[in-house]
Amino acid sequence: MYCRQHKTEQGFTLVELLVAVAMSAIIAVVLFSLLGGSISNWKKAETHMNSSFHRGNLYILLSTKLESIFQYDSRVDPGKYFSAESDRILFLSYQSVLFHYFPVLTEIYVGNGKLMMKETPFFWDRPNTDLPKAREMELTDKVKKLKMGYLMRDAAKRNDLGQWEDRWDPTTGRGKNMRDIRFEITWEEGDSMIVTHPLPQKEDTRNARPKF
User: pTM above 0.70?
Assistant: First the structure.
């Protein structure tokens, strides 16, 4: 004597129901895994695009600021209006991001893992006048280091290609002309960006116009 399971006219056997539930669970797990991976990849792609867009804007900003450097070679009060060091730079600029209609004393440096820019309004004819206070802005974060470079050429040698130096002292650098400035920014994740721009000569900055 034996018995066997068989479909009823109303539905499925218990075994078939359990198998169907198990298969549905497996399909659900697979679908959620695929969906989760797609969302993760999408978020990574979005982060990468945002990062690329932001760093592209940073490149443009630094290039524009370098275009507007003025009187970097002044022998008056060396270091007051231009200071070229290995990990920061200070210069006078016609292009301001934080102030309108003001030439600014600009300082770019790394502090607490962030690339910072500080702008201080300045007037040549009224250096002691009360002006708006200096402002700072974060250019990018998670910065491991900023390495500056300065292309120096021998002023007496017309065809001198020059060499890169990590700092410039106007009191000891006589006989040399600075021709290019380079920013080399390295982020914590290992990515890096180099911005190199030729220094404008005095005739190039005489009729400069703000771009920001």
Answer: no
